[in-house]
Input
Amino acid sequence: MKSRLTFLLGGLALAAMPLALAQPGGLRLPKTLEAGSALSIQSSGRGPAVLYIVGHGQVLKRKVQLGETTLFSPGDLHSAGRYLAVLVGGPSTEKSEFDVTAAHHPGALSFLAKPSRLPVDLHDGISGVVYVFDAFQNLILATTPVSFQLSGAAGAMQTRTVLTHNGVAWTKMNSAAKEGTAQFVARAGDAMNTRVIQQVPGNPCRLRMSARPSGERLTLETEPVCDCRGNSMPDGTIVSFTETYDGSESTVDVPLKGGVARTDMPAYSGARISVATGVFIGNEIRWRKQR
Amino acid sequence: MSNGRLLAIVITVATVALIVVGTLRPIPSAIDMAGSRTNLLRPPSSPQAAVEILAAEIGRRAWERAYSSLVNKSEFTELEFVRDLTGTYPSLRMYATLDSFDVRPLHSSSEEAQVQLKMRWSSVVGVFLDTRNLRVLRTGNCWEVMWPIVKEPRVPPQVIPVTYLRWDVIHRGPEDDWGSQDVEAPHVRIVDMHPVDRSGGVVIMGELLNEDVVPAYVTVKATLLAKNGSAIATEDTFDKIAHILLPKQVTPFLIAFQNVELSQVDNIHMEPTASLVAASADPVIGIEDQHLNPVPGASLSGKLVNHSGQVVNVAHVLGTFYDKNGQLVWVADQYVDRALLPQTPVPFVMSLPADIARSVNAQRAIATTFGSGRFQ
Output
């Protein structure tokens, strides 16, 4: 009985010997580091081991010698998030956690500018939202100044600087009084993104037509159709001519071409002719045949 | 076993009975399909029978036999006769089939008769009616039809210069970043909406405005909501709308719900949608000489005039009708079965319900078009 107990204790002591030789004495690594920066991990002990770095969407594996420093090059760890370092050497395992944060230097912007087309002279009509990312597409959660700039051929330049909140910055801008294309630029550090905003005429404000005889018919033509700010309505805008005579009606929807709408209608003496575009009504003519 | 035998006997007797009934009293469409309407049921030696034979041959597209049976065939060619019935240019009429016809004698003497032929042509957008008043002359023991040829106008060969206005669109690509800008969808607005109880259902009529500077492909969906907020039914406009709306253009729309009463409806959720599409501002269609014809047979009639230089294969007229207070009371539509040639008026008639027609004080008509080989 006694000899059996001695044999058992001796066996346990022999089994524990390689563990004592290869056991790592602990992983020494920073608690946080910036994405893309170099990383060195110091281990203790002796013998070969394998080091795993496990994070969101990224796993690194290195064969290491315990007691030496393991180096990771800049860019090896590029995704922000919580990482787990696992050192496996023989039967033992050592674990340690650390965080990789986004780099402080903005590398890219996601810029949402809405709408891409809007009428002129609209207060707070344009909204811009920016998400600030580092060079590795990590959202920078640290407060970062973002500058918004709206400029175009028409209207004064508008500039606003906004601090990000949880990686997002937003602002609103007014559309210019004159139609035209505007550049909407968002800038954070060296990162920049541009959107094009098309500022188009508003609702028609003045619509006048004239009539002249053309054989058996009347030629109707509008003056250039403009909005209240004097911007010409774009070609293709539909203008409706309506002629009423003796209980009968004729209508035609004509697109603006070269800024004016032109059409022919039957020439009835005493006919009443009106013009409209959208819900805006222009002038009315009562046609009398010239004698 | 006895039940099975009884069933077999019943089926056999029913089959024989149906065959006998179908042979003795066939339905008109079956007769037309068989092509034996006149041969079986009518003697060919009457004005009515002569017209029925002609109509049956037209229905079978037996143009040569139909043409050869006419008394005045020397006045026009067979091709002109065919073009009178089917049109020269591709149109709804060209692809329609004769669904049925009615023959009604108007006047008759021993040598001559007047017979009205109503042909109902079936097309992809419904049935359209073609009515001809025919003179039928007696020649010996037979009667022959004098066809009132309507020669389709021909546009003389010419070059018509057109300032072509057109919008094309480039959308963002699938490889672009999620934050990348895309072209803005057109902004449209419902400017008028009016629900009514009608024919055992609910009809929603309204008008939609494209308030943007780009063309839009539009449709309107409506959901009827009950008092507890649940959806009763959802429908959309289908073809009761002008789907392509140019900038500042207004279209009427009509959405019909069957088997729903307006009293059941607490709220209506309207959902107009607009997509940016490539479109052309041509052709321009004038709608001239619009007349509101009173009851009975209330209708809006007029003429479509194609102001552009291209042939329009299919035209669709949408009418919006208002009462004396300017309130929208009805939306109607009508397809035109003939192609629109440049500067050539084509008549149309749009039916109106009699009760609605009495309250109509004004109307507004628009035309949408389709031409082969182009977008609109």
